[in-house]
Amino acid sequence: MPSHPKTTWVILAGGQARRMGGQDKGLVTLNQKPLIDYVHQRLTEQGANIAINANRNQETYQQYGPVFGDVLEGFPGPLGGMHAAMSHLDSEWIGFVPCDCPNLPHNLIEKLVNAIEADTEIVVAHDGESVQPVVTMMKRDVFERLDRFLANGDRKIVMLYDLCTTRYVDFSDEHDAFINLNTPDELEKFGALS
Predict the structure, then answer these.
(1) Pairing of strands 93-98, 131-139
(2) Through-space distance between the first and last CA atoms of the chain, rounded to whole angstroms
(3) How many whole angstroms separate alpha carbon 83 and alpha carbon 89?
(4) 51 - beta bridge partners?
(5) pLDDT tens, residue by residue, 24-76
(6) What CA–CA distance (Å, rounded) separates 156 from 159?
(7) What is the pLDDT of residues 96-142, one digit of tens each?
(8) Three-class SS of residue 132?
(9) Do 95 and 135 touch, CB atoms closer than 8 A?
(10) Distances in Å between the alpha carbon of 56 and those of 22, 24, 111?
(11) pTM: predicted TM-score of the whole model, two decimal places
(12) Three-state SS for 90?
């Protein structure tokens, strides 16, 4: 597998999980295992250096890697976790995945890294139908733009991608790899199928 200089992968577990009844989504269980276990395992098997963005249960999350909370107040969503990662980590590149995506591609890192060119600032997964905006790698250089973007009150990730040199990576052959489980009903259905 190609390596890329100084990359840290961050599992985003800092959200409020309103649709999951406010439970800490990364710790919600699927077939007796916390969701984050599945995500952590997929990244680990690909050789990732992992950290966790979490605003609750930080001691529990420490078993998966170094933990940091959001820097900005008011839960600005995944961008808040991305902002916090760039504030805490000194890696040249930072990768991001959500904590509720248990079926991530086995070749996720390889494909994203291979898409990076000299001028690339962001690479992001595309499942053939839509962008998967939280499955991404960002060059740390975009931090100031992200900081300004959030200071302006913007929250839509794809708008940030439009401000940067972004490459979209085709995962259409693994469309189902990006299923994310947002509600107890989705969790139950997925658990019955897996």
Answers:
(1) antiparallel
(2) 28
(3) 10
(4) 10
(5) 889 988 888 999 999 999 999 999 999 999 999 999 999 999 999 998 877 67
(6) 6
(7) 999 999 999 999 999 999 999 999 999 999 999 999 999 999 999 99
(8) strand
(9) no
(10) 11, 7, 32
(11) 0.92
(12) coil
